[in-house]
Design brief:
By secondary structure, the protein is an alpha+beta fold. Helix content is 26%, strand content 16%.
Length: 136
């Protein structure tokens, strides 16, 4: 009976799965369900990379980290010093990706970001695609 109990403990019913999924979503973890069936697109697809989540508790330096749509290694960080400087900014978001992107931010955008207002801007198109970068 010990073997049967341990086997039953390892199964996940719909309720446990739903609860675990909800907890994962609320904690910012992505759940990917992969269809292993045949057919579909002829072109290879890259698995999605996790999107960095902005830090809700900014560092003492006041750096702001943006969220990047369809991210695959890019990073968008504006230092607190650069926010305080003001003026327009062309932000390089290359990060660990194999190709560059930039995001144009106006002085008004930087002021809004500095006071925790939401700002979203489209990146340059490089490598055949672009990204939406959102601060706050």
């Amino acid at each position: 009976m010990q073997e049967n109990e341990s086997a039953l403990d390892k199964t996940v019913d719909r309720r446990k799965f739903t609860l675990a999924s909800a907890m994962a979503i609320l904690s910012g973890v992505a759940i990917t369900i992969v269809d292993s069936g045949c057919g579909g697109s002829d072109s290879p697809t890259m698995p999605p990379a996790p999107t960095p989540t902005p830090n809700p508790n900014p560092s003492p330096s006041g750096d702001k980290v943006g969220t990047i749509s369809a991210n695959h290694g890019h990073t968008a960080t504006i230092t607190g010093a650069r926010l305080a400087e003001g003026g327009d900014l062309i932000l390089d978001i290359t990060g660990q990706a194999s190709h560059p992107h930039t995001v144009n931010l106006s002085g008004a955008d930087l002021t809004a970001i500095a006071i925790n207002q939401r700002v979203s801007r489209e990146s340059s198109t490089d490598g055949g695609h672009s990204h939406t970068v959102t601060f706050n």
